Amino acid sequence: MPARLPPLNPLRAFEATARRGSVSAAARELNVTHGAISHQIRALELSVNTPLFERGGKRLKLTPQGALLLPAVTRAFDDIAAATAAMTRPATSGELTITCVPALLSLWLIPRLHLFTEQYPDVRLTLTASNDTANLFDPRVDLAILYGDGNWGDVWTRLWSRLSLFPVVSPALVASRPLRSIRDLSDHTLLHGDDGREWSTWLAAADAADVQRGRRHFMSDARLSTEAALHGQGVALGDTITAGSLIARGELIAPFDLSVPANDAFYVACRSENRAAPIVKVFIDWLFAALEADPLPEPQASGRTVLRTRHGKMSAGHGASAAAPSEKRSKPPISRRKTRPDPAAPKTRTSR
User: The whole model's pTM is what?
Assistant: First the structure.
């Protein structure tokens, strides 16, 4: 049964009827009877001592006096709606402290931060690059964006985005030291943003777990390994969230048409008592809206390096430049071979 509306008033009946061009349509909109609308319009016409509608046709037409009154009535109702929304809108001013995965903060959030500050100019942000789950229990931290499995105890958690991993390299490095096949990786420095698990997973998926590995550098997180790749220091593993814009701008290329799902994902999390805070809620809502409204770029390219697997499948074409792999494309089967951390790697936790 429809919810009961506040008592109908003549101006609301007039405005709805003028907009709909029909007493019956206005009655349906306002959830009242045809007779109630007619009665209120007659009452308004009596109060202003002039007819507001020309009657006789199938569709009601405003008289000159009705056409004069309608814009003022419409503006009045719009002003009332705006004032009511302002009264019920959550507070959007104050300080908000956020910790965020380093690569996501530098390569995705910071470039879009102006979109939030333009919408909420009275919110003062404190941003810290960190993937430490201990931040969830720090009373100084309002919200955390983490890379992991999402199982962090008695806190509010929501999946923000899954991601896939694939090699990325600077065009200048490929020009001087080509990557014509997977075996050419042995001539390049592999840049690790974790303890070696991610590269082991990707190489296993490419049926190249036994490829000879040359020099390796281990870094605390994917932001540093990606920056090293930008400077031509080697080949890093990028992901579909943080590397997309760099590839679209031509600062990095993806030389192989193969991506593997990351073991973990990006999550938004906070203590349960923080979730209800209006300033936290508006940032969370904006964060999800920004991801939906700004789809990841997928630049076109002339071709990609062929990857053959023992299953007989291969990617299409090869060339010096490449596009970001798309999760919608078919991928070569991922090896069932269990991957282990590189024994030469430092014992650090996985961190994008």
Answer: 0.62
